[in-house]
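ok posting inputs for the adenosine-5'-diphosphate job
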Amino acid sequence: MDRYRVKPGHKVRLDKHDPRDTRGWDGDKDEAKARFVALNARLEALQELLYAEGKHKVLIVLQAMDAAGKDSTIRRIFDGTNPQGVKVKSFKVPTEEERAHDYLWRVHPHTPGAGEIVIFNRSHYEDVLVVRVKGFAPKDRWSKRYEHIRAFEQLLADEGTTIIKIFLHISKDEQKERFEDRLEDPTKHWKFRRGDLEDRALWDDYMAAYEDALEKTSTKDAPWYVIPADRKWYRDWAITTLLVERLEALKMAFPPAEEGLEDVVVV
Ligand code: ADP
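and the output
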């Protein structure tokens, strides 16, 4: 999955990344679904190991345009994992109390502890995305934030956090189809907000803001991955593969047994 990693210092042009790409895959869709199930079982086993070992901390940041599938990605990929060791934190419009503080204040308490995986559904990146595009803060405020974010994430990494940042890349056409589907299907009406259309009208501004954010904050210890997300089956397979690769690289092991355990008899 290294092909999707944004190399530090490289220019990002999202129009050069195909949201329908399936490059890592040479079989058909049904085969991918079957492989996804097997890979997912591997991910569950690795999460159990992470929890048992209680040593590593894993932070997954998920960012995307509306309807790119953040919620369903989380649901499908972490479906069978142990809820004790996996937490999801969604970042919404800041509350009055959050707005009264600096923008990282609400984020830090939710970073993972030892043995945990935390998934940020949106994140501190909103403060250089929506805030920039909608003009919620002046440029001289948000433009300094890339540096803060790099320093903040470096702090987490230096203290033992593995950081995996994922941008789910969908096309504007695919978003249109998914919005139309939400409007047609009464069980999906709740997912649609009128504000989503305002953001859609600002698509190009968002792409420019994402390009800047990806480019300026993809570092060796906190890399971004641009994952093609128009095809859900490929998205799920690619992200699971990425997570399995990154977790396997931690070379985890179950804690050793207590001394003399072989002599214990349960009566
Ligand atoms: P989601 O779209 O993630 O499923 P919502 O529909 O509740 O959830 O949308 C959350 C909204 O909160 C998004 O429009 C997002 O841009 C906004 N938001 C998140 N963080 C911030 C922030 N720091 N400042 C302003 N808006 C934010």
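notes: The pocket of adenosine-5'-diphosphate is lined by residues 66, 91-94, 121-122, 126-127, 130-131, 136, 193 (CB under 6 Å). The domain at 2-252 is CATH 3.40.50.300 (Rossmann fold).
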